[in-house]
């Protein structure tokens, strides 16, 4: 019963989030589960397009990359880069892609996106670059306001990502952000997307499932 109530609560809340996104010149969609989200994402990515992505447990969980590779889109596989030079070249290629895939580390109930990044390639592609940005966001990432969203991104998402990546940063020992200045920190750049300057560019699919962190 608790699960049913929570799902109903998320469904109701998604309407407020989608209105918030639209007011900020972005588009919002609601999916009841990962399968529905995958279908919406594929509909948003035209046949023939080049597609880049940022590191995202949510995108991985959806199986979106595999689905794109089986279709008629060109996926830019950033993990194939072996050297720093190749990595830089692939990041530049992604910057010029037709579509960029990502999650958002957190969101506010009124539609702002909060993202934290280490090298900055992911947040830069959210800001500008690819013609279209498709984001998939589990409803657990929706927070009341900007302060709560930033705290969630810093104290929950970033430590979990550090642990996932096996990085030697203080949060991997404490489970919360210690505001480190480590050279290995994945918290170099903080991006708040308050408004999209380019209408129809950013599309956010809300999923009523706990996906990613
Ligand atoms: S700032 Fe440092 S301690 Fe905080 S989450 Fe990022 S890497 Fe971990």
Helices and strands in order, then pairings?
Elements: H1 2-23, E1 27-31, H2 34-44, E2 50-53, H3 57-62, H4 64-69, E3 74-75, H5 84-95, E4 99-102, E5 106-108, E6 113-117, H6 121-127, E7 132-138, E8 142-143, H7 146-165, H8 171-174, E9 189-193, E10 202-207
Parallel strand pairs: 1-10, 2-3, 2-4, 4-7, 5-8, 7-10
Antiparallel strand pairs: 5-6, 6-9
The protein binds iron/sulfur cluster (SF4).
The site of iron/sulfur cluster (SF4) has 15 residues, from helix 7.
- Kindly name the structural category: alpha/beta
Give the C-level CATH assignment: Alpha Beta
Largest sheet: 6 strands, parallel
Task: Specify Rg, calculated over alpha carbons.
Answer: 17 Å
Order of helices and strands: HEHEHHEHEEEHEEHHEE
Total number of β-strand segments?
10
Q: How many helical stretches? A: 8
CATH topology heading: Rossmann fold
Q: Which architecture per CATH?
A: 3-Layer(aba) Sandwich
Approximately how much beta-strand content do the residues carry? Answer: 15-25%
Low-confidence stretches: none
Placed side by side, the strands forming the largest sheet appear as: 1-10-7-4-2-3
Bound molecules: iron/sulfur cluster
Rounded to the nearest angstrom, the distance between the terminal CA atoms is 24 Å
Shape: globular
State the share of residues found in helices, binned by percent.
Answer: 40-55%
Q: Oligomeric status of the shown chains?
A: single chain
Mean pLDDT level? 96
Give the tally of structural domains: 1
